[in-house]
Amino acid sequence: MATGGNAIRGTRVGAGPMGEQDHGFHADRIAISYWDALGNETVRYFSAGIPDEEIPDTIDSPHSGLPAGRDKQNPPALAKTEPYKTHLAYVKERRTEEEAETLLDDALQQLRERRGQD
Description:
single chain, 4-stranded antiparallel β-sheet
């Protein structure tokens, strides 16, 4: 006779004598709805005894990854994203050698002044 593992067929691993009420599944809870800018609703459950100031006003929506708020009419705005820049766009933004030397000289002068004051 071939057997596999030590679990009895048809049982869950880790199932024990405790029922759901012992795990806290029947605790009094309140449902709070959150909406993101795309209109997705997310419902989060909190303990009924929790004070209102401990319930967060915003969360990250699992549907879109955007911030979601409790106000359905005025959800948090979409995050402003910068357009993708290519490497050449960053190269064009680099300072000239003269500007870099001026900035370095200014920084060194400020350091010398600070050290002289100490």
